[in-house]
Specification:
Blueprint: H1 8-19, H2 24-31, H3 35-56, E1 64-74, E2 92-101, E3 107-113, H4 117-130, E4 136-140, H5 145-153, E5 158-167, E6 182-191, H6 202-214, H7 229-245, H8 256-259, H9 269-274
Parallel strand pairs: 1-4, 4-5
Antiparallel strand pairs: 1-2, 2-3, 5-6
Helix pairs in contact: 1-2, 3-7, 4-5
């Protein structure tokens, strides 16, 4: 790993532990690697995984794409920031925008930023690079900036719809951590001619669960949150590369990258960090 003098088998073990939901400190105790070494390893591995995805996930033919955002934070939650920290964008809420092909389960692209119009446009622009010019169906939640971003970066290339969920009032005791029960999901056509029975966000929402189960820093109600934006970016890149190339999807019986025709075999973590 560049200038790091770690035996490959120990580096692979450390990354595997991080990908299976262990925290930095628990991985430190298991591997006897210093936590600073582990974080340096994470960043270097994340950089390599990001380069791999930027190289391989380009101009792909897709049929059904679902997009969503998953919330996290760096350092502290947004409403806990001090007046001095308001000028630092890399502290507070951090939303990861994720696009996934519904049939192959391939994560096409992601972008870490704030839940803003510029971040949404940057994400959709990355999605435009990842997908070919063949028309496909795109579904998002009801986040309004998607409409303008899709019209700007994907004109004539997608049949776009939003699935707008209507929530009930939260029950007593659930106001802080739980959203209200979904009482209705209303499909709304935004562009082209999306087929109603293909308007769905269930698969990308299941991906959000996989993220929270596999990345300790994204587990709710713990003290394992990210302290640096760079580390969270690296953790996401490592997770998505591992999910696409190394992890066999239970329903597909192959990895998403194999199902999409990007590779013909299951990769190991050693393959990821040596690419």
């Amino acid at each position: 790993m560049d200038s790091m003098y770690i035996p490959q088998e120990k580096a692979v073990l450390a990354l595997r532990l991080l990908l299976e939901g262990n925290s930095i400190r628990s991985t430190e105790r298991i591997t006897d690697l210093d936590r600073n070494t582990l974080m340096s390893l994470l960043v270097k591995a994340g950089d390599r995984c990001q380069r791999l995805m930027d190289e391989k996930l380009v101009n792909l033919d897709v049929r059904d794409v679902e997009v969503d955002e998953i919330w996290g934070y760096v350092g502290k939650k947004e409403n806990h920031r001090t007046a001095y920290e308001q000028d630092f964008a890399e502290i507070g809420d951090a939303y990861c925008f994720v696009a996934m092909e519904r049939n192959t389960k391939l994560v096409l692209t992601h972008y870490l930023g704030k839940r803003t119009v510029p971040a949404t446009e940057h994400f959709v622009a990355k999605l435009a690079l990842a997908t070919s010019g063949h028309p496909y169906q795109l579904t998002s939640d009801g986040f309004s900036p998607y409409v303008k971003a899709v019209r700007k970066h994907l004109p004539g290339r997608v049949h776009f719809a939003q699935l707008i969920k209507v929530y009930s009032s939260p029950r007593e005791g659930e106001q802080r951590y739980s959203a209200g029960e979904v009482v209705e999901a209303v499909p709304v056509r935004r562009m082209g001619y999306p087929e109603r029975d293909r308007i769905c966000t269930s698969h990308i929402e299941r991906q959000n669960l996989s993220i929270r189960m596999g990345m300790r820093r994204m587990t709710r109600l713990t003290n394992a949150f990210s302290k640096k934006w760079e580390n969270l970016e690296a953790a996401y890149a490592l997770w998505f590369a591992y999910y696409n190339w190394c992890r066999v999807h239970k329903s597909l019986r192959v990895t998403p990258a194999m199902e999409a025709g990007i590779t013909d075999h299951i990769w190991t973590i050693a393959d990821l960090i040596s690419c």
